Amino acid sequence: MNRWLILLASLACSLVITDSSSALSQRPNIIIIVGDDMGYADVGFHGCKDIPTPRLDGLAKSGVRFTNGYVTGPYCSPTRAGLMTGRYQQRFGHEFNPGGGLDVGLPLTETTIANRLKDAGYATALVGKWHLGGSDKHHPQRRGFDEFFGFLGGAHAYFPEKRGGRTILRGTEPADEAEYLTDAFGREAVAFIDRHKAKPFFLYLAFNAVHTPMHATDERLKRFASIADEQRRTYAAMMSAMDENIGRVLDKLRAEKLDENTLIAFISDNGGPTMKGVTINGSTNTPLRGSKRTTLEGGIRVPFVLSWKGTLPAGKVFDSPVIQLDLLPTALAAAGAEAKPDAKLDGVNLLPFLTGKATGQPHETLLWRFGTQMAIRHGDWKLVRYDTAADGMKSGVTKHKLYNLAEDIDESHDLAADKPDKLKELETLWNKWDAELAKPLWGG
Q1: Which fold has domain 27-355?
Q2: Which one, of 284, 302, 298, 297, lies nearest residue 42 by Cα?
């Protein structure tokens, strides 16, 4: 009798191991794609007419489109710091872009999404822009990425003859890269998938398109000859290049029969730079007011898509506010590698909300601090102080302004004087959060 019990226990144990092994092999691949300085209005799924984005539109149709998708900073590097950690970057002092030549970057105390997924058995790669520190200790391959192809700083020329000695890296070594940079990033992303298609992988595909400098291929510029404004024409060509190369990635997944086992996220790192007096790229944020570098909606609300064929509903529109911090816990949950409470994540796993297993909103409140600018969204109400340059004035900071975003998406009707109690409520919430934050590690 004891022998039979031992045999049954042994069989049960082997079944558990087999089931666990099978589950591990079915973990989804994870791809996070980031556009750089995109205008909110410049994708087809937000109504853009002069720049076709068929592959991004297809991605949105295959999954969930978020109408209130946000990022935690109106600037490149802070948003990426939040994305990598799932935490408000102000908690660890990464409030602004690192200054040129400074030995600064994403603090080494922070754990990245690549660290977490690598520990869970994923192959990990960054293709594209890092902008989280240029020193050896901040290098992507010391922050959880097995592979790296791209550049470490904030901006980069797209043609080799215009790079002025600055180089593209493969790992830590210079790469003799001759191709138009957006095309090179698409090529390298496809190659990474090909090398790791047999096991779960995490790919962070961070395009520098459509960030300045404004460089486009002649062939793509010809497609947009009907756009009279030269800057907008170049921007359109650059957007088209990014859309095409996202398409190359999607086509590779389909060819390898991985498209139903891959969670894909797409965001822009901030709104389009449209503010006069600063560098602009030809983008449009309509119907939002404001620009990159401001805490108005035009600086922080972005195109935001999640797709996981067969798991997430296709064609779903999700109207509750979400933020890029949510991508880390969502990816970890998909991978079966949820972070422990001591990770102190600010992001939320979105999967239950998107599959109907959870009701309500992922976030009641979202918050921003960018130097003397600030914002808080609590339900439909938003309290904000923003750069007066957005109003065509000399740069400074406004007094508190209060908007109801459900009725006033372009933030044109300040209700601060009419709703003093609501203003006070939001101000109190923001002040409580602000008291928890670190001082910036470097200046604005």
Answers
A1: Alkaline Phosphatase, subunit A (3.40.720)
A2: 284
